[in-house]
From TrEMBL:
This is DUF8017 domain-containing protein. InterPro entries: DUF8017 (IPR058330). The lineage of its organism: Bacteria, Bacillati, Actinomycetota, Actinomycetes, Micrococcales. It comes from the Bacteria. Pfam families: DUF8017 (PF26056). Residues 60-245 form the DUF8017 domain.
Amino acid sequence: MAAVVAVMVVAIGAFALLRDDDAPSAAESTGAPGGSSTSASPSSASSASSSPGSSATPAEGRWQTIASSSLPFAYLVPAAREGWTRGGAETAGYVDAHGKALAKAQDPAYFKVGSCASGKGVARAWVGFSASPTGVVETSRAAAAAWANAVSLRADGKTHDTFTPFVSRTVKTDSGDATATQTSTVVSVSELNAELCIPPRVEITTSTVKQDGLTATLVMVRDLDVADQLPDDIKDRILRSLRPTPGVPAS
């Protein structure tokens, strides 16, 4: 049986921090999306020291580099004093009421963890390397579809909240002349829960970079229409920061 390190409600799905890419059992998960949370801060998960992306504390005020533990890629997030928490070697994902992992991401970072006074562990946004359940490299659009289906799943485990048509665009990254394909959609939340600070809408954006024969996809899940929403310009800077890390072999 897989061990759940921590479980928190982020956006509307049952969101879990997992070890070794295993899905939690139903008894170990929060169950239905939007239900009560047995949440804990991300720092209670597996040791961050095992991740190459969390080896050293960055200088005060500098953006933090989060390196993939399995791919020669990295991304940047703002400094800890700006509300960002490094997830270390965690695998984060959304699970259904039976504990089945619907979408997973590695080496995550979280924005405004614990910002909700009555929902300890709730994060207003988070980002990580999207992991394909089949091991096949997915396009930005395919990854966005998988995450949208996971995040939008309702408490009945069968129906989904509506989400907008996928919009894809090509953007220039901060890594030389490299470009990324970004795909976004917005989920309209029907099962609001003020006590757990569930937002009215949740935005999902994936960004895929292909360079030197390798591919990496970053996914960001962001609460919308909330007072402490992650600003658009910071979101864009984080997604543009996805880059290869020369000299770091893929594991």
